[in-house]
Fold:
Amino acid sequence: MTIAIGISAAVDRVRWGPWEEEVTMQTRAYSRAVQEAGAIALLLPPDEALDVAPDALLDRLDGLLLSGGSDVGPACYGAEPHPHTARALPERDRFELALARQALERETPVLGICRGMQILNVARGGTLQQHLPDLLGHGDHRRTPGTMGNHEVRLEPGSLAARAAGAERLEIKSHHHQGVGELGEELIASGWAIPDEIVEAIELPGARFALGVLWHPEEDTASRVIGALVDAVRAKAPA
Structure:
């Protein structure tokens, strides 16, 4: 069976040579991790037509990977923007929230990474902490903009997060300044940062595969997390 994993695309302006254009893009690490797990990677640009009818796209996918990127717009969860909240991209927010909600409804395996974890939480009615340094008193989760940091996380024994990662404690690659506020409906926390206890993994009990991680497994060639998404699809594939 050929497995197709959709990866949500970022939207930004990019300059190369004499050209400056608005593009849909994503770092190659995501597609490489999906391909190395034995699946086809499909990049998903925002599409207003699919905001109200995401099944037309989900019918063509076996799994969904909600990628990292810009801050989720606070209006999506009824909040005013914090001074440190970066430029929101409403078209991306609407598209990914629609995909996340319907993927969960359809039992399509879904993995959210960093921003993607936050999208999963908001899709279930949760909120976000817009600037973690306000809560923690430090900016260790994003020490140097543009550079991944490292810290440890602990995962709930027996949780989907622990099974996907293949460990209950591991060192991860991190780059974010936002996190989970109130958990969305029926979601549970299953991973926490060491030592500050920020929620690093959430999941939906009883779902086929619905996991969000705040770290960046695509940047770690030894990580099993993205492969676990593909394995979840493969496990339910017809013989």
The mean pLDDT is 92. The domain at 4-11+20-235 is CATH 3.40.50.880 (Rossmann fold). The chain has one domain: 4-11+20-235.
